[in-house]
Write a structure and sequence with these properties.
The structure is a single chain. With about 230 residues, the protein is mostly helical. The longest helix has about 40 residues. The chain contains eleven helices and no strands. It is globular, with a radius of gyration of 20 Å. Helix 1 packs parallel to helix 9 and helix 3 packs across helix 8. The chain starts with a helix and ends with a helix. It has one domain.
Length: about 230
């Protein structure tokens, strides 16, 4: 009985570490927090805090859904992971391109944005684009699906233990995401206005590169699959 408990604890711990290490670097809330500030320009601190909570909840729901039923949904609709990467990568790249071409706002435009950015408008943006694809894009979803596939085992108790570890990792990642977005403005404050603009541009460029990388990884997988189907001489 003790041996069985040890195996379950080991499965729980390994799944926690695997899920945390697989999802957090791709999610990378520290890198997307400056982009969050740009997309919520004009919102006050209270609205941004409310958005951060809702985005964290959405990220948790998306990752858990992808982990538990993502592979089954893709099979049901006949969609492969490379196609998900290409479609999502294009969305990420398009959003980053728009951010790169945004002109700095003047004091008057800041006031206009503050008047226009109502809580209702903020909540409409909480899922798209602030949760998907900015916070939890195709790379994160693909990683969560990969983690979910690894949780299954012939022993039901071990499967449940692994699932518990992975879910705890998603909770931790979501909390980190909330803190990064909630205090993004304070983290960038030491840079000053000019430094923040430069940092935001760099973040948008990195996001653009990430989108292109996601598209390429999906296209590469499709090319490899196509090559395997070709008759070999």
């Amino acid at each position: 009985m003790n041996m069985s408990i040890d195996l379950l604890a080991l499965g729980f711990g390994k799944s926690f570490l695997f899920a945390f290490a697989a999802i957090l670097p791709i999610l990378n809330p520290a890198a997307t927090a400056p982009v969050f500030l740009t997309l919520t320009e004009g919102a006050d601190q209270q609205t941004r805090a409310l958005l951060a909570r809702n985005i964290a909840r959405n990220v948790f729901a998306l990752l858990v859904g992808a982990m538990l039923i993502g592979s089954y949904l893709l099979d049901f609709f006949g969609i492969s992971l490379p196609i998900v990467r290409i479609g999502g990568g294009l969305i990420v790249a398009a959003a980053a391109w728009r951010l790169l071409n945004v002109s700095p706002s003047s004091i008057d435009s800041h006031a206009e944005l503050a008047d226009a950015f109502t809580p209702e408008q903020a909540m409409r943006k909480a899922f798209y684009p602030l949760t998907f694809p900015l916070s939890c894009g195709p790379g994160s979803i693909a990683a969560a699906i990969t983690v979910g596939v690894s949780l299954h085992d012939a022993d039901l108790r071990l499967s449940l233990a692994r699932m518990g570890g992975a879910l705890l990792a998603v909770v931790g990642v979501s909390i980190l995401h909330f803190w990064a977005f909630r205090y993004a403005q304070q983290l960038l404050k030491p840079l000053g206005e000019t430094g923040s603009i430069v940092f935001l541009r760099l973040s948008a460029f990195i996001l653009l590169c990430l989108g292109v990388q996601i598209v390429w990884s999906g296209a590469e997988a499709l090319i490899v699959d196509l090559w395997k189907t070709l008759p070999q001489r």
